[in-house]
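Data availability (excerpt). The following record was deposited with the supplementary files.
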Amino acid sequence: MGFTIYRKLVIWFVFVSLLSLGLATAIGVHSVDTAVVAILFPLVLVIACVLARSISAPISELAHTAGAIADGDPTKRVNTRRDDEIGELAVAFNRMADVLKENSDAIEEKTLELERVNAELKELDRLKSEFISIASHELRTPLTTLKGYLELALDGTLGEFTDLQTSKLKIMDRNTDRLICLINDLLNLSDIQSRQMHLVKENSSLIYLVDEAVRLIKPLADSKGHEIVVNVPDNIILSCDWARIAYALRHLLDDATRFTPEPGTIEITAEYQVGDVYIRVSDTGIGIPESELGNIFIPFYELKGSMQHTTGTSGLGLSIVKGIVEAHGGMIWVESEVGTGTVFHIVLPKG
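Predicted structure:
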């Protein structure tokens, strides 16, 4: 289209200049300065009028339309059919608005689809949690009964058994313990996911909880030649569900023991920090790849590579530990370097 507006201004300039010169000649003005003023003054008025009518009005319409679109009316368009630069701008603007509306419609459609899928996933997750809870409760009762009879058999209450029979009973007893632990983990996970974990808080000495966790882990650590270092002051008191916190500490120490090459060092430290209790569990183990650090708290997640299928655990422990810590109003995170070791950090409120 070229520079149509500018051509119009030139034509108007020539027309008005000739008109002004003609008027000046007609009235007998012969001074050069007076003639120039006679030409420029009406020219300025004409240019202002042309600009106001040719540019300001359509620009104002563009601004109004853009505002309407921004306010949520994607159907608004510029109503101009000018055959000049402003017209080109209006066409480009309308084309852009069309594309924006198409994109907006596509996004809205995808959003609705995502909302539908998300609702289905939430329902499936609810059903899964409900199934886990019901199945775990139903399994725990017969397993507890089985455990009781195995203990009676092993302590001789049910009579004498041969050495072979006794060894088989011990295997059954160990596997029953594993099943009971798995069921308890599933119940804990179900409570965490449904946000129904019931905490029975009382003031507990942290060193007592740590010593209890170390006592349970020490046989495994000794069998691997590990050293467990405890650096926890005896004056740290927590208001917590001691059974839950003891579980969390025991699991972290158990993982550290299992994933540390023989012999190694596992250390647990604690201190007051700005009114909170800061606990640190570290090891000299194989470490966790950086790409996996964001996944270790996901239930049932299996780590890749050398950490996969090495412990025989359910893959629920760390997700339960995280749930326990967060249920107490605390937070947990991990730092690790492959070949060097792993550090778990826990911050818990005192009260």
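Summary of structural features: Residues 201 and 241 are 4 Å apart (CA to CA).
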